[in-house]
Write a structure and sequence with these properties.
This protein is an all-alpha fold and 450 residues long. Helix content is 86%, strand content 0%.
Length: 450
């Protein structure tokens, strides 16, 4: 396959996959924007609630993400029975994780108060999480089915499903946050109901699509039957993937807590900047997913040349996008930040000024985030998960988080110091992960399949 062929294959898989990721983050952004129009205190609360929810959710996605490389390898080898067994056990583990973690959403207010957050803001965040937390069940099932379809390179339904979900979420937000069309004014709880409704409908749509259009795997037939060897294999690959993702997302959640110590207006500005940076993060996650599928299928089919060239192509595509995204953040920080605030909000000038500065830092870490995301996806496709987990833990928690804490509290740089720590942690991960893939894992795997 030529370089142009690799670009075409990556684009045909990546565009709908990235589109579905953008739809997912658009739901969160629409919640944040519309709650921000409601009032600033609720905006700060949903920033905290979003960080809390995402930390739990992202660890659970490790098991769904483990399905992707395993199914890609099985599909590359033409083993349909193994595809079915892997996906079913991914569903089992995700459901089990959801049930175990639900109580954490019910008592979230106490946890946030313990972390030093404003009691009133923590109480509002708990109101949101007691409803939105139920969505962890359909959300994790969506991740398993999304990984299954992505590994089979059937991603169009993910894009179109997301395209419908976003306006639906906005409409329900409009009705329930502000109390339009005769419905009650629920404020932040209305945003939670909208998100939960969207997630439930999305998982139903994917289930129906697979049942009617991907019949050869009979995915939901005898779903109740256990397959313990495959269960263990998915679990063993999934938990380090989950912890790796948790290490990164946990760093951003910790940054939200540290900014919360600075003040309410800084927290609102930080939340806006995080939401904007999350858009590009989800695009990079889409590129990372492409890297996982393409490397997994190449490994399953035993094609070392496709594996090497495909890795270089997807990395180049991700880096080009990161440069463009960074330029947008650098050139238009104030208009982007202003989208999240009502025009008559008294704190608007201060929040926009702080948020604009943070977007300059967000522009800087786009590039290092691209390098670390693609390296992570390539390693995952080759089912190398434990070493990346350790690299993530060291980079984010022994380098990034202490740097944020020292610069923000002890040096006195405040919120900008927190963001510099994020850049340092991501850069450390990018260097170590790329070294592991290009210098250690890729030569070993290509020798094995050559």
């Amino acid at each position: 396959m030529t370089v142009r062929g690799h670009v075409g294959a990556a684009a045909s898989l990546g565009v709908p996959l990235i589109g579905s990721n953008l739809a997912l983050i658009a739901i969160g952004i629409s919640d944040t924007v519309m709650v921000g129009w409601y009032d600033v205190k609720s905006l700060a609360a949903i920033v905290l609630a979003g960080a809390y929810y995402f930390v739990i959710f992202i660890f659970g996605t490790g098991f769904g993400n483990a399905v992707m490389p395993l199914v890609a390898e099985a599909a590359g080898a033409g083993n349909d029975v193994r595809v079915r067994r892997i996906t079913r056990m991914g569903i089992w583990i995700s459901l089990l994780f959801s049930v175990i973690t639900l109580p954490m959403f019910m008592c979230s207010g106490s946890v946030l108060k313990f972390l030093g957050q404003d009691p009133e803001v923590a109480g509002l965040a708990q109101q949101y999480l007691r409803i939105a937390g139920l969505g962890v069940v359909p959300s994790l099932l969506i991740m398993v089915l999304k990984s299954y379809l992505s590994a089979l390179e059937r991603t169009a339904i993910l894009f179109w499903g997301g395209l419908v979900a976003v306006p639906m979420n906005i409409i329900v937000n409009y009705c329930l946050i502000f109390g339009h069309w005769g419905l009650p004014e629920l404020g932040i709880r209305g945003a939670a109901v909208a998100s939960l409704s969207t997630q439930m409908i999305s998982v139903i749509v994917l289930t129906v699509y697979i049942s009617f259009f991907v019949k050869r795997h009979a995915l939901f037939t005898r779903l109740w039957r256990p397959d313990w060897p495959v269960f263990i294999r998915v679990f063993r690959l999934g938990w380090p993937i989950g912890l790796t993702m948790l290490a990164q997302v946990g760093l951003f959640a910790a940054s939200t807590v540290m900014v919360g110590w600075v003040g309410l207006k800084d927290l609102a500005a930080h939340g806006i900047a995080i939401q904007l940076a999350s858009i590009t993060f989800m695009i990079q996650m889409g590129f990372s997913g492409v890297a996982t599928v393409r490397s997994g299928r190449a490994f399953g089919s035993g094609d070392a040349h496709v594996l090497r060239v495909g890795a270089r192509v997807i990395l180049a595509m991700a880096v080009c996008f990161a440069i463009l995204a960074g330029l947008v953040f650098f050139k238009f920080p104030e208009p982007l930040t202003g989208l999240f605030l009502a025009s008559d909000e008294p704190a608007r000038p201060v929040i926009i000024a702080t948020g604009s500065l943070l977007l300059v830092y967000a522009a800087i870490f786009q590039l290092v985030d691209a390098f670390q995301s693609i390296a992570m996806g390539l390693l995952r496709g080759l089912q190398d998960a434990r070493a990346p987990m350790l690299i993530a833990a060291v980079s984010y928690w022994l380098v990034g988080c202490p740097t944020s804490l020292i610069l923000s509290r002890f040096v006195g740089w405040g919120t900008p110091g927190v963001w510099i720590g994020l850049i340092v942690g991501l850069a450390c991960a990018a260097i170590l992960l790329n070294y592991r893939f290009w210098a250690v894992v890729l030569p070993r795997k290509t020798r094995r399949i050559a």
